Amino acid sequence: MSPDAPKDSARFPRPQRPRFAVALEHALEALIRLSGVSAILFVAAIFFFVLREAAPVLVRDEFSLAQFLFSSDWYPTSANNVRYGTLALTVGTFSVTALAMALAVPFGVGAAIYLSEFCVPRVRETLKVTIELLSAIPSVVWGFVGLTVMSKLIVDTTGAPVGVNILNGGIILALMSVPVIVSIGEDALKAVPDSYREAGIALGATRWQLVYRVLLPAARNGLLAAVLLGVGRAVGETMAVLMATGHAVHIPSSLLDSVRTLTANIAAELGEAPAGSDHYRVLFLTGTLLFLITFAVNLTADFVVRGIRRK
Amino acid sequence: MALAPAPPTGRFARTAHGVRKERAEAVAHLVFAAMAAAMVLPLLLIVGYLFWLAWPSLGPEFILDIPRRGMTEGGIWPAFVGTLYLVGISLLVSTPIGVLAAVYLNEYARANWFNRVVNLAVINLAGVPSIVHALFGLGAFVYAARFGYSILSAALTLAIMTLPVIIASTREALASVPMPFREACWNVGATRWQTIWAVVLPNSVSGILTGVILQVSRAAGETAPIMFTGAVFYKAVVRGDLFPYSLNDQCMALSMHLYTLATQVPNVKESLPYATAVVLLGSVLLVNAAAIALRVFLRGRKRW
User: Could you tell me where the DSSP H helices lie in chain B?
Assistant: First the structure.
């Protein structure tokens, strides 16, 4: 510090803001920080409150965790032999999700490739708006479509006795998760540096050769993340599968069997289970299980995406 | 991206290999275009088909009237107003928290492990299944906080559900404000908050607004989270009454009403559930289209 410094600041006094303005700003910044961490609080709160309702049943003698996870006997209201086995529900969830992904992944990735590599800007804008609108259709409307339009269609074409089954739920879920896969997949393809494309074109590659020799391998992680997020959405979907997959709690043997999923089971039975009963707590335990499944899927997707960024 | 090779001439004549290449290219183009078109078609078909079957019941009278004869006839007024209540209250709660959280993440947070966890929490909150939100709302708001089955519980549940998406869209809007704007403001001696208030927020408010409008339609369409926290099958209100509910009341909601009509009510008039679906779908798509139009309009006016 030079000796002149105090004299300088005396000549140019630093303007002081009113004290309350400074205090207000500090308060606001504290509020911002609090809101910033609110997401952590809410995720923790969701886990806590759902588990809190479920926990008492874990220590009951009548309940066994092994039965809950690995038995397919779901008889929550049986008079003399109550059994809470969710295996059939888990199988239901995964069979519907698997069919949905088998349909949605090729179409989603194909559409993402078309959007990012083949089409002209005007078509791209139109398609993106359409996809956005498609993803805005509420799940209960999808369920209604499954229950009415799709189920009639399935009965007419396959001759199945009921139209609400795995096939129906799978198609509906595929339509619901395709927008997620397209938009994330397109981002992943966009993230491939243009120099890769230029190098390919300089070698005389057509766009198709470019896509399957260069872009798909380079965007592999991003596309995988897109698929995982689609899976997460499909596993957690409730209203659509509640209305479109039927209500049979059993392990399915064909695509035309009705099933019930973990989510649909909660939605269908929570209203009838008296608060505080074992049945009610087991449904909350199912919710905890669902929370953990989607948590794992989303975390994996995020790590996969981070993998590409680090490269 | 006009990357198509120029037509071959002179010594660059077509070879058999080149022809095969072009053919594969044409096929790939066609297949991918068909896959993209396969997403447009269901949207049009579904909207068209629902509209077709709903036609006999549609009209202003349908929205303004109350359900009659055990919900087998009449209109949807209580459900329509109930949805407005739920959406309005939930966004009143989630918008300020979401915007402030995005301000924190975009303007304050440094790249360290803690903020990495915050980001993961936002991503995971967005991925929590809607039925788990319902369980949370039931456990936390209905029972633990003693709000009971009410509009308040349902709206708060919806608010937490829409929060992560509001955070994400607001963050994107904030990030699109160029860094030099902030630097110029800091250089004239403004504090961090003054910069945010005077420069960052005014320049991103349109983007924030678009994100919030999109959440209107999402909140309106959700069924599972409100089913067990405050929405009921039937509630008697006066026809056309704009303020039939109070915060502690249970209410009807459009999405719930559609579920009820489709699965629980026997002998319902054929076109009634379709008309309900069309009103719900129509409002959701209209709100979304408005948000998209606003975004396109504002993007055209952007000065940087």
Answer: 16-54, 60-64, 77-103, 113-127, 130-137, 151-175, 179-187, 192-195, 201-221, 224-227, 254-263, 271-301
* Minimum CA–CA partner of A14 in chain B: B189
Q: What is the pLDDT along chain A (311 residues), one digit of tens a residue?
A: 455 555 565 666 666 788 888 889 899 999 999 988 888 999 999 999 999 888 888 887 777 777 778 777 777 777 777 788 888 888 889 999 999 999 999 999 999 999 988 888 888 888 888 888 888 889 899 999 988 888 888 888 887 778 788 889 999 999 988 988 998 898 889 889 999 999 998 998 888 889 988 999 988 888 888 899 889 888 988 888 888 888 778 788 877 888 888 898 898 888 888 888 888 888 999 999 999 999 999 888 888 877 655 55
Structure tokens at B42: 């269901």
Kindly state whether residue A7 falls inside one of the protein's structural domains: no
Question: What is the model's pTM?
Answer: 0.87
Separation between Cα atoms, residue A303 and residue A235, nearest integer Å: 19
For A172, the domain range is 83-310
Is A30 in the same domain as A149? no
Mention every residue, 6+ apart, whose C-beta is less than 8 A from residue A13: none
Same domain, A239 and A135: yes
CATH number at residue B149: 1.10.3720.10
What number of residues does chain A have? 311
Residue ranges making up the domain that contains B237? 74-301
Would you say residue B286 lies in a domain? yes
Residues A119 and A226 in one domain: yes
Distance from CA of A30 to the nearest CA of B (A): 10
B132 with A39: Cβ contact below 8 A: no
8 Å CB contact between B248 and B152: yes
> In Å, how far is B96's CA from the nearest CA of chain A?
9
Report how many domains make up chain A.
2
